[in-house]
Design goal:
CATH architecture of chain A: 3-Layer(aba) Sandwich
Mean pLDDT of chain A: 96
CATH class of chain A: Alpha Beta
Helix content of chain B: 25-40%
Oligomer: heterodimer
Radius of gyration of chain B: 21 Å
Largest sheet of chain A: 9 strands, mixed
CATH architecture of the largest domain in chain B: 3-Layer(aba) Sandwich
Distance between the termini of chain A: 58 Å
Protein name (chain A): Electron transfer flavoprotein subunit beta
Organism (chain A): Luteibacter flocculans
Structural class of chain A: alpha/beta
CATH topology of the largest domain in chain B: Rossmann fold
Largest sheet of chain B: 7 strands, parallel
Shape of chain A: globular
Keywords (chain A): Electron transport, Transport
InterPro entries (chain A): ETF_a/b_N (IPR014730), ETF_b (IPR012255), ETF_beta_N (IPR033948), Rossmann-like_a/b/a_fold (IPR014729)
Strand order of the largest sheet of chain B: 7-11-6-1-4-5-12
Number of domains of chain A: 1
Family (chain A): Belongs to the ETF beta-subunit/FixA family.
Chain lengths: 248, 313
């Protein structure tokens, strides 16, 4: 079985995001970029399934500008067999990403597609569900545990009410939650090895994808700040302060 | 004509409070009609609750055996059929809505507006990105149907004084059998629901162990609060995942939030930004939680919580 893994590049999760003063975007110049943490988890899960013998090939997919290749090399260094770089200079909406992935799915015929549940830049949380819808296949979002056997995926999902277990026929789309696994670190020899692994570069325009641009972002703003509060010295003072606010 | 279809979230024959919050957001659009749709094998009790929500014009029910569990792959084709004639489809931004709404949007051929915080006009919304570190204004094409999830912490629950009519409808949609529900593992609790509770007490890594968490439960029960936890406490196995508050857990807006032994990682703060009053109790006076707390108390939680209980009598 082949597994396709979405591998998006985002502003590193440790970076404190600053909104540009003119409200046209966030500052990304000179900011550290890394793999979306949920996508690292997706890749790790795919690699573990390959190591268990459930899968025989793991393909990482990125959609983005020419310099995304270096990022995809990290996915190869982590252990993916090969990479597909769908090249575009434009920002890509979740629906466009899903339509693009569908084209690759039709070509590659994977048994499983694993994506992060959301990217930590736009926090959209849409692409996996959209791909599953367009592909007319099962979706198992927010996965905390994945078991594959007999052409089926048994997935434990982290939902608001607790843990939901569903069973999905393959092929299917799984999106990862934080507790699914802890991604491995990339070792130096793996970086060297990754240099000889193949990366297919495809122009987005050549895939015949109808881009979806129904939603335009017109303004960026910093969130309202909470003002710094007061310190109390003991439990009695705290109770008095809360009673004064009518909260106890 | 602006007509909004709100997808009801429910479990075990009870309407989830997130639905009334999504109705509040729908009302902010000032539409001509807000209809709530209930998909279930036995929708009557849930529909009766939904009919009471202020501002609801009509409740639509789709009763099918396949709707016994809320599987997105099963619900989505039915919502798509039912959405004909509507200008907007709203769902709460809970794990239920986040799972379902994008599947609906894709089938309708549109992108989705995730986590609506404010409604500027029927096609313009504000939503958070970068874990709430930036707020963007987005405009949806006037000619497109708007599919959106509603950030429940940003909206009050609409009151329940209404009496909207209930109408059973049938939708002609082929339903897949490729996805099947197995089970739901739920922590049993008599405490208030974390997402809707006016008071929440959360514990973090500073609590130290699963056993020590009893002190959090005990204090929460004393003041009638729901109990939450930081990601660190969940990852350490002190409490189950459904108690996690933060960017990747639950985003909540109680009137009173008491953070106990929580340092205040940005991921956690994202989940509590809209709380009315934030109280922080931590032994480290330099902890980031004190930057956003309205009231801070530096000290040993194992001494302070019993003191608080004693002060409350």
């Amino acid at each position: 079985m082949k597994i396709l893994v979405g591998y998006k590049r985002v502003v590193d999760y440790n970076v404190r995001i600053q909104v540009k003063p003119d409200g046209t975007g966030v500052v990304t110049d000179g900011v550290k970029l890394s793999a979306n943490p949920f996508d690292d988890i997706a890749l790790e899960e795919a690699l573990r399934l390959r190591e268990k013998g459930v899968a025989d090939e793991v393909v990482v997919v990125g959609i983005g500008p020419a310099d995304l290749t270096a990022h995809l090399r990290n996915g190869l260094a982590m252990g993916a067999n090969r990479a597909i770089h769908v090249q575009t200079a434009d920002a890509v909406s979740p629906l466009t990403a899903a339509r693009t992935l569908l084209k690759l799915v039709e070509k590659e015929q994977p048994g499983l597609v694993i994506l992060g549940k959301q990217a930590i830049d736009d926090d959209a949380n849409q692409t996996g569900q959209m791909l599953a819808a367009l592909w007319d296949r099962p979706q198992a979002t927010f996965a905390g545990k994945v078991e594959i056997a007999d052409g089926k995926a048994k997935v434990t999902r982290e939902v608001d009410a607790g843990l939901e277990v569903i069973e999905a026929d393959l092929p299917a789309v799984i999106t990862t939650d934080l507790r699914l696994n802890e991604p491995r670190f990339i070792k130096l020899p793996d970086i060297m090895k990754a240099k000889s692994k193949p990366i297919d570069v495809i122009e987005l325009g050549s895939l015949g994808v109808e881009t979806a641009d129904h939603i335009k972002t017109t303004h960026y703003a910093a969130p309202p700040k909470r003002s710094k509060g007061v310190m109390v010295k003991d439990a009695a003072e705290l109770v008095a302060a809360l009673k004064q606010k009518g909260l106890l | 004509m602006t007509k909004i279809l709100v997808i009801a979230e429910h479990l075990g024959g009870k309407l989830n409070g997130s639905t009334a919050r999504a109705v509040s957001a729908a009302a902010a659009v000032k539409p001509d009609a807000i209809d709530v749709i209930v998909l279930s094998d036995a929708p009557d009790a849930v529909a009766a609750e939904a009919a009471k929500i202020d501002g609801v014009s009509k409740v639509l029910t789709v009763a099918r055996a396949e709707n016994a569990q809320s599987l997105a792959a099963v619900y989505a084709p039915q919502i798509v059929k039912a959405a004909a004639g509507y200008t907007h489809v709203f769902a709460p931004s809970t794990t239920f809505g986040k799972d379902l709404a994008p599947r609906v949007a894709a089938l309708l051929g549109v992108s989705q507006v995730s986590d609506v915080m404010t409604v500027e006009d029927p096609h313009t919304f504000k939503r958070p990105i970068y874990a709430g570190n930036a707020i963007v204004t987005v405009e949806v094409d006037a000619s497109s149907i708007v599919v959106a999830t509603i950030r429940t912490a940003s909206w009050p629950a609409a009151a329940s004084n209404g009496s909207a009519p209930i109408e059973a409808i049938s939708v002609d949609a082929a339903l897949p059998s490729h996805t099947r529900f197995v089970e739901l593992q739920q922590g049993k609790s008599d405490r208030p629901d974390l997402q809707g509770a006016p008071k929440v007490v959360s514990g973090g890594r500073g609590v130290g162990s699963k056993e020590n968490f009893e002190i959090i439960y005990k204090f929460a029960d004393k003041i009638g609060a729901a109990v939450g936890a930081s990601r660190a406490a969940v990852d350490a196995g002190y409490v189950p995942n459904e108690m996690q508050v933060g960017q990747t857990g639950k985003i909540i807006a109680p009137e009173l939030y008491i953070a106990v032994g929580i340092s205040g990682a940005i991921q956690h703060l994202t989940g509590i930004k809209d709380a009315g009053t934030i109280v922080a109790i931590n032994k480290d006076g330099e902890a980031p939680i004190f930057e956003i707390a309205d009231i801070g108390l530096v000290g040993d939680l194992f001494k302070i919580l019993p003191d608080l209980e004693a002060s409350l009598g």
